[in-house]
Amino acid sequence: MPAGEPTATRSVRHRVSRRGMLKIGALGGTGFSLAELLRCRSQATANHSPPDTSVVWVWMQGGAPHLETFDPKMNSPSDYRSMVGALSTRLPGVEFGGLFPGLAASAQRMAIVRSFHHTNPDHLGASHFVMTANDNPGGSTQQTKPSLGSITACVRGANRVGSGIPTFVRLKPTVSFDFDQPLWLGRANAPFDAGGGARKNLSLSVDPRQLADRRGLLRRLDRLRRDVDHTDTMAGMDAFEQQACDLVLGATHDVFKLDQEKQSVRARYGPGLGEQLLTARRLCEAGCGFVTLTYGWAPQPAETPFAWDMHLGPSQPNAPPMDKQLRAICPPLDHALTAFLDDVAQRGLSERILLVLTGDFGRTPKINAYGGRDHWPGLSTLALAGGGLRMGQVVGRSSSKGEYPAASPVEPKDLMATLFHVLGVNAQLQFPDYGGRPHYLLPEGARPIADLI
Hints:
By secondary structure, this protein is of the alpha/beta class. The chain has helices at 7-15, 18-24, 34-42, 66-69, 101-105, 123-132, 148-156, 197-201, 214-229, 239-249, 251-255, 263-269, 273-286, 322-346, 412-423, and strands at residues 54-60, 86-88, 95-97, 110-113, 168-170, 192-193, 290-294, 353-359, 362-363, 375-376, 382-386, 393-395, 397-398, 405-407, 430-432, 438-440. The protein contains 15 helices and 16 strands.
């Protein structure tokens, strides 16, 4: 011990040794430390300084109906038009679905793509298509291409240097199968699972039997954080080892604590999706690059058991009428998204954070015999806000009954190219697959959505 060192510091050094800090990064029983994981992930960021931008990806699981969201077609025959009416927006001549008053009043902050489409009518295949910009026919549960979030983590590095904030965070799973994985980009670029998984596994190397309960562990963590803050224990540690500690003890530990926000802010967002979006804003503000969250994951409350997947009829014998389901699930979505747009604007973050609202596909333009709508990849809901893109417009045009794109078609690969533009990802980047064969990250022929750039 250095001569004259304060007793408190000696005590902390005894309890928080360098070896002990390294153990913080141990991942379960794998023997692969968090520090090693961070070092592996950082290799993709050499000689590259990405912009300080983020994407918040709101996934409408099950296929939200494009006619009831942002393309109501009220001049179409009654069995085609929006069954919940329409609302005028602040954009001349543009209407949104009748259950989105908040977003209608915020339309100048948004860009609505009415020509977004693909070709896969299966939930799993369509989810894979939109999330990776590559089709996966036949309803396969096997992911074949890296996800957008994993690409972002690979290019930027898994964690923001200094704060330890993960680059790619999953707040809630998007589908029952993980189509947000990195594949050959390396497991280091997998999402940080804030809903469990990775977040719960990040723990100190202490014997749980020495603690009375989980609260005891949390109290010990908090004491350790305070001790580290008041000593030089971290001095001399490898940068990646320090990041590992930061991930457990630093900003990442705090960013999920919504009680640190003013009560008025928390009330404005509301529960459920609102809490997810507030957490997403806090993550992005702290340096996270890509956040995914879900609205429409079954099981829903009793009155909306099927979320956006509204076939009705024999396949869903206990489902309420479609308009009743919409009146239950659309207002909370409208409220939370409006609160998010207001909040990021007030904080001066609109240019930095891009909100993306989409899902697996749309619903059939013509109402079926049971009063529902079936799967329809011919057109899908896609709305964007912020990110330095050109807002206050409608991109593309759908056919008169909302069946297909009539002008400026946009595919999943074009959405991916647009996100590459926002995130500063080089469209020409290639990475080798498991066999060593190089692959472009962006599919051939992909172009950013021209009207937004």
